[in-house]
Amino acid sequence: MSDPFVVVGGDAAGLSAASKFARERPDGDVIVYEKGRWISYAHCGTPYYVKGEVEHVTDLLSLSPSEVEDRGIALRRNHEVVAVDTDDRTVTVAHDGDRSVQSYSDLLVATGARAVSDPIDGSSLDGVFTLHGIDAACAIRAVLGEPGTDPVDTSVEAVDRETVERYTAWEPPETVAVVGGGYVGIEMAEAFRAHGLETHVFQRSGHLIPPFGEAAGQRVAEHVREQGVTLHTDCAVEELAGDDRVEAVVHEDGRLAVDLVLVGIGIRPNTELLSGTPVELGESGAVTTDDHGRTTVEGVYAAGDCAETRHAVTGEPAWVPLGLTANRAGRAIGQTVAGTPSPVGDIAGTAVVKAFDMECGRVGLIDHEAAEAAGFDPVSETVTAGSRSGYYPGGDETTVTLTADRDSGRVLGGAISGRDRAAIRIDTLATAIERDTTVAQLERLDLAYAPPFSPVWDPVLVAAKVLNGRLE
Amino acid sequence: MSDPFVVVGGDAAGLSAASKFARERPDGDVIVYEKGRWISYAHCGTPYYVKGEVEHVTDLLSLSPSEVEDRGIALRRNHEVVAVDTDDRTVTVAHDGDRSVQSYSDLLVATGARAVSDPIDGSSLDGVFTLHGIDAACAIRAVLGEPGTDPVDTSVEAVDRETVERYTAWEPPETVAVVGGGYVGIEMAEAFRAHGLETHVFQRSGHLIPPFGEAAGQRVAEHVREQGVTLHTDCAVEELAGDDRVEAVVHEDGRLAVDLVLVGIGIRPNTELLSGTPVELGESGAVTTDDHGRTTVEGVYAAGDCAETRHAVTGEPAWVPLGLTANRAGRAIGQTVAGTPSPVGDIAGTAVVKAFDMECGRVGLIDHEAAEAAGFDPVSETVTAGSRSGYYPGGDETTVTLTADRDSGRVLGGAISGRDRAAIRIDTLATAIERDTTVAQLERLDLAYAPPFSPVWDPVLVAAKVLNGRLE
User: Fold this and answer.
1) Radius of gyration of the CA atoms of chain B, in A
2) % chain B with pLDDT above 90
3) Can you list the residues of chain B whose pLDDT is less than 50?
4) Which end of chain A is more exposed for a tag (fewer CB within 10 A), N or C?
5) Who contacts A36 (Cβ-Cβ below 8 Å, separation ≥6)?
6) For residues B353 and B167, what is the distance between their CA atoms, to the nearest angstrom?
7) What integer pLDDT is reported at residue A17 of this predicted model?
8) What is the SS3 assignment for chain B?
9) Chain B within 8 Å of A393 (Cβ-Cβ)?
10) Closest by Cβ to B352, choosing from A437, A445, A448
11) Across the interface, which of B347, B436, B448 has its CB nearest the CB of A424?
12) Is the Cβ pair B352, A450 closer than 8 Å?
């Protein structure tokens, strides 16, 4: 009997791979080791659980352990893979104080990423949270919990009862600070405002959601201010102060008394398991992979938030840890390991975010520094155009930024923001970019027109027209 | 002095061409002849004017005559071009009982299309309308007019006062029939229901909005029924009965007493002006044009609803009279005539429609007969998937139909329907189709994911995955 396909990590990438493998090779063995209690949860849904828009923590769970087992997958929760020997093709697994060794035929490292908070002094105080994982979401919801409701159902087996109960006992906060104006920060500001809290967002740079470009950042800033959020841009947080519990944010311009802090300043790939192995990491610190998700060591794959993926615009590896990338790569690797080689697909850096009623999307290379580093000669235009025919009610100004390469005319990236169906329009640009489209070709696309959905010239076409005028 | 650029028709294509020409060649002469009183109006907005969602008829006008003149365009309303001599390069113009001859350097035929109603006996009765043109919209709104409001402002100079006043005097209808379940019919059913009328839609074939495919047609049928519309599908209308005024719809299965009838069974290109000239028409009856909008006769261009355009999927001429096509071709022809040859762009047959709260989009070749006629071996799949993450509120089932060519795997066409941002998603498919994308490539596109806007696997990706499974 051959050794099993071993998967480290029971979330999007890991379980997608295991499920696909089990479906394609019902006779094969696959083991998934998950060091924690939670599996297969919707990370991107956690801000909406904190907000209360998603009612139960269980709503965020895609698959239960028994559903996973029913797929023919051996699921081992609370099992941490602590070492990999790529010569012997074994992993060492720690569980309940014991260690064991398991051989593998193929290994998928899908260890994910973790939220970073350590650059900020005081981030280990009580009342300081990051939002990475269900436990953090439950703890924050427990703090915010409205009287008369049971915000976190501790009958759910995997819930960390002790932490939840400790935070449930806290007085609900009145003033909260969000450190970091990226998309997690903005989503959490929306969540806190929904609970009626005085909400401050601190952003080190001059505009919010930097990967979406300046125009989108400005629209979001204006909108979140209208929603009662106090923005502190160009303002670095120096320290979170307090004894046991956080009491204040000490920043460049002063000190703000707070009851709770959410730190959303980025994440870092979990690759410690691979140190000491010949598996190479990329410049980003995430695992280098090829177009089939293979690492530099035979029989070892990596996928999800711990891995790099080839970028469709640059052709180079990039680390853009997002949900579709993880699911897609996991599924492809499961199929490859099962015997049918399947490419994981490039990424285009497509991302969308909701900030209260404002919607933003971004794709590709928008920033000129990044485009120049990739060897392009970037030129950008930003336009604002209506989302619907001017006479049709309910539309909103839609802001489109397009970046192209001056020499080839190729569209390199773009961002779209607005309150009326703006985010999903980014898929048009994502498709154009992945299919190597020039600005002139984009300008002539036969996009949809009907008064309730788009003006005759869709905002994307308007942007292409203006940018093309500069390229011609 | 050289002869002017002469444009026949003062709507989207004609005025786009004249405007672009005037901007590029401020020293050049351009004359626009419009046989009617209205220019540059938003045809696609007329159902929403009838509905009352667009309040004033003037809201539908993009450009006033004086704005057109300010652009350096000689606008001649109530001037009908009645003959073209392509040898002499002249047109004969009728105005106020007189005729005159005008030479041209280049000629653009942008005569549009007209609604068809003559196949139905009784279509000339009072109370039977088509919806093509502002006059028709004003007349219908006058009939529906609510007491205490002045639905059509007869101080607007171009309004046909006599007709409006005659219809204003009518008792508001209680029961209306819409003959034709295409998009005009469905939009008008929505408008009539907004006025509280008992609304019947008669459709000769088995499903509504046939160009959108069966799945979209079924979703729309179900939805409009929920909105109180009575559907008569597979039911041909034999006659509209009445003395002067329409009193009943006589159909295959019986007779329905009605107060008003809207016939929306299609349109026909206005090409009579060219009969007797060597300008060739295509199979559709619309004018044959090349990739620059040139007809088969030198110096004569055609654009808009009277012209064919090359289809991106078949590479063959097609007649898909829609707003963007007209505007885009007009603008390109204006630029070409001004001295900078500019392609008009292919069409992909992209169209979107709102049916109450249901949104539908379509693009390319969906129908197998059409795909086979174009030399493809079509295969289709229809899937239904959520528009948002399952746990996020406010989403709707989104139905996606994809048609591909079995041999090449190329995506040929698709349709999307649903209540949550479904229509605008068609632009993703339009872009994919115009950029020659295979189903396998579509399946691996990095499309947007965030719980409020899309599940991890966007419905388009789900459809591609399922269809690709059949192709592999």
Assistant:
1) 23
2) 92
3) 147-148
4) N
5) A77, A78, A133
6) 29
7) 98
8) CCCCEEEECCCHHHHHHHHHHHHHCCCCCEEEEECCCCCCECHHHHHHHHHCCCCCHHHHECCCHHHHHHCCCEEEECCEEEEEECCCCEEEEEECCEEEEEECCEEEECCCEEECCCCCECCCCECEECCCCHHHHHHHHHHHCCCCCCCCCCCCCCCCHHHHHHHHCCCCCCEEEEECCCHHHHHHHHHHHHCCCEEEEEECCCCCCHHHHHHHHHHHHHHHHHCCCEEEECCCEEEEEECCEEEEEEECCEEEECCEEEECCCEEECCHHHCCCCCCECCCCCECCCCCCECCCCCEEECHHHECEEECCCCCEECCCCHHHHHHHHHHHHHHHCCCCCCCCCECCCEEEEECCEEEEEEECCCHHHHHHCCCCEEEEEEEEECCCCCCCCCCEEEEEEEEECCCCEEEEEEEEECCCCHHHHHHHHHHHHCCCEHHHHHCCCCCCECCCECCCCHHHHHHHHHHHHHC
9) yes
10) A448
11) B448
12) yes
Nearest CA in chain A to B41: A391
| B343: chain A residues, CB-CB within 8 Å | 444
Question: Would you please indicate which residues of A are annotated as catalytic (active-site) residues?
Answer: 44
**Which residue of A lies nearest to B354 if distances are taken between CA atoms?**
A452
Q: Is the CB of A460 inside 8 Å of chain B's CB atoms?
A: yes
CA B6 to the chain's CA centroid:
25
pLDDT at A146: 65
Nearest to B446 by CA among A144, A413, A90, A403: A413
Q: B324 to chain A: which residues are within 8 Å by CB?
A: 446-447, 449, 456-457
Dihedral of CA atoms B29, B32, B38, B41 in degrees, nearest 10, equals: -80
Q: How far apart are alpha carbons A413 and A362 in whole angstroms?
A: 8
Q: Which residues of chain B neighbour A345 with C-beta distances below 8 Å?
A: 444-446
CB nearest B60 (choices: A48, A391, A456): A391
Going from the N-terminus, what domains does chain A have, and what CATH number goes with each? 5-36+78-113+268-337 (3.50.50.60), 128-265 (3.50.50.60), 357-471 (3.50.50.60)
Closest residue in B to A394 (Cα–Cα):
B53
Q: Of the candidates B54, B348, B456, which has its C-beta nearest A392's C-beta?
A: B54
Query: Nearest 5°: CA angle at B432, between B427 and B436?
Result: 145
**ipTM of the complex in this document:** 0.96
Contact call for B428 and A427, based on CB within 8 A: yes
Nearest to B430 among A345, A393, A446 (CB): A446
Q: Give dist(CA A297, CA A279) in Å, integer.
A: 6
8 Å CB contact between B400 and A411: no
Q: Which chain A residue lies closest to B58 (C-alpha atoms)?
A: A391
Sign of CA dihedral A68, A73, A79, A83: negative
For chain B, say whether A400 makes contact (Cβ under 8 Å).
Answer: no
Res A148 pLDDT > 50: no
Q: Is A4 helix (H, G, I), strand (E, B) or coil?
A: coil
- Round to whole Å and give the CA distance between B152 and A391: 16
Concerning whether B360 is annotated as a catalytic residue, the answer is no
Average pLDDT over residues A325-332: 97
Residue carrying the six token digits 């201010």:
A225
Residue A150: pLDDT band with limits 50, 70, 90: low
A434 vs B457: CB contact, 8 Å cut-off? no
Interface contact B5, partner A, CB < 8 A: no
Asked if B457 and B385 count as a contact pair (C-beta separation under 8 A), the reply is yes
